[in-house]
């Protein structure tokens, strides 16, 4: 069995490239398990600054099955996103074995985020597993991996200062916006979206003292979201924008495909992709809103400033909004550039926790891989014990001194103690040999992935 991850993040790709690559990410796990026999489980983690695939592959680590699975997933990503296969293959970093756990635990703990120590990622890791579980595409190994990642994240949060800093992409965006806004108690805000980031944004706004919040959603869920949280829903985005000082957009709707759109006719794939690139908020809507509000208030258009935070990876907001007079737009790239540093001692302590958890997880996982060798040794030991006892009983019988049941049991106990004492060293050696072989095979997996990338570059895949 092989545990693999294919990861693409803001560390390796600019956000535009990452956005293109992760279009259709939600469908990849199900497609991978359904269309590739050796992939027994898959979990997709897609956030504002990463797109990662975790795979459980039922094939020898150093065999062709793992390499085939990696190439197959690259083709699925390319097909879903419209990115050429070579570009999709070279966009991912492949990890195997111990590297998989160490990376996921770092991600879940906020150590690999644009804002180091951000807490939203812990919930996103948990939800990624929940989605895979609900879709029936996870595996017992992936379940344990992600559950351990969540436990590790909690330990980092409770045992280091990293967890108490309240750091997040949302908090950073609001900090930057505050310099251009009235006091928070006077700010009129519009929240676009109803997902987890929208909930986090609303909570952050309230913590700052902003309570004049209206919620808009293209999905039609604004009423339910607003009613559950005691805010107002709006169905007219232009009208709401006209009164807003701050817009926080985190729907991610631009990256979603509408089920069935374009299917069953020529050009269906192109139609779906064209639909996916529309912005939730465009410059024309902002201009109309501000002109309408200015006329109502008797002011000149653009006289009152507005800050727009686009927290969606698949940009909700048209970049041309930044060209509208009086509007300041912060997107993820801007926020990444303003991300504050964290004390090195805090990060080192968090990384130590992650390393310990990853080591323990890997020893447990590889220990299970060595169980076959250990079981074989135990079975052989049982055969030796039975054979030696049978020989003693036979010799005593031949000498005319038959062995009673109690004597036979005592003989068996004596032989068992001696054989098991000798067996301990053999088990330790067999387990170490099996673990070493598994680690060596995992290195082969990474080498195979690098060979796959070379083939992708050459257009072979």
UniProtKB/TrEMBL annotation:
Residues given in the record as substrate binding sites: 47-50, 113, 118-120, 124
GO molecular function, one term: glutamyl-tRNA reductase activity
Keywords, sorted A to Z: NADP, Oxidoreductase, Porphyrin biosynthesis
Catalytic activity from the UniProt record: (S)-4-amino-5-oxopentanoate + tRNA(Glu) + NADP(+) = L-glutamyl-tRNA(Glu) + NADPH + H(+)
Residues under site feature: Important for activity: 103
Catalytic residues in the record: 48 (nucleophile)
Chain ranges of the Glutamyl-tRNA reductase N-terminal domain: 7-160
Pfam family, one: GlutR_N
Domain notes: Possesses an unusual extended V-shaped dimeric structure with each monomer consisting of three distinct domains arranged along a curved 'spinal' alpha-helix. The N-terminal catalytic domain specifically recognizes the glutamate moiety of the substrate. The second domain is the NADPH-binding domain, and the third C-terminal domain is responsible for dimerization.
Note in the entry: During catalysis, the active site Cys acts as a nucleophile attacking the alpha-carbonyl group of tRNA-bound glutamate with the formation of a thioester intermediate between enzyme and glutamate, and the concomitant release of tRNA(Glu). The thioester intermediate is finally reduced by direct hydride transfer from NADPH, to form the product GSA.
Family the entry assigns: Belongs to the glutamyl-tRNA reductase family.
Protein function: Catalyzes the NADPH-dependent reduction of glutamyl-tRNA(Glu) to glutamate 1-semialdehyde (GSA).
Protein name: Glutamyl-tRNA reductase
Natural source organism: Cellulosimicrobium arenosum
Organism ancestry: Bacteria, Bacillati, Actinomycetota, Actinomycetes, Micrococcales
Gene from which the chain derives: hemA
